[in-house]
Amino acid sequence: MILFCPPGVYRAQSDTDLLAGHLAHHAGGRHVLDLGTGTGALALTAARAGAASVTAVDLSRRCVAATRFNGLLHRSSVRVHRGDLFEPVRDQRFDVIVANPPYVPSRGAVLPRHTVARSWDGGPDGRAVLDRICDAAAAHLRPDGVLLLVHSEVCDPQVTIDRLATAGLVADVVDRACIPFGPVMRSRAGMLERRGLIPPGERLEELVVVEARRG
Ligand SMILES: C[S@@+](CC[C@H](N)C(=O)[O-])C[C@H]1O[C@@H](n2cnc3c(N)ncnc32)[C@H](O)[C@@H]1O
User: Hey, whose CA ends up nearest to atom 8 of ligand 1?
Assistant: First the structure.
């Protein structure tokens, strides 16, 4: 799919593609929420797969504008909101919630808001945004709804599964893909090694797709 991606917006990558395959399987006829939509790649995947409705949220005005533009480009109807995670949809529930959140461990705990690093910086353990999604998703899922997340093994899939269980969702890793470190992970490899988040010399990361439902 050709997508307009202005500066400051995350260009769809391997993590997007891995998640898109699962989303396409679940989206047909369902009400879908894409959290942290970027260019709208996942929102448009859902629309193409025949979703009943697609809602997309991003913190960034540029991402909102890019997603609106890409919706028009592909003649797809996507409601796009600017805001922090579930805040713009606080009273709504969905059949499918999908997110490719920022998950790369970063130096400090303060997350960037106004630079493209907001797309990948996940706080010291990579889990700052991920944990918030795990904690809040159940309240926005319809009874037979499904949550689909992608992240790196570096931020520990078992923590995701346990956190979702605490929130009342049964979760499992349903897909994995091993990819070479991209530029951000390469630039942080030394820091990740020092923190014991990757073994010395490791330059491949495993991406996981986590699927969660009500127990
Ligand atoms: C890794 S990018 C994923 C973009 C797109 N979904 C994809 O898969 O190509 C993460 C996105 O989350 C957005 N984001 C980061 N923190 C957010 C927050 N608290 N609320 C909403 N969006 C957020 C970023 O602006 C960025 O567009």
Answer: 16
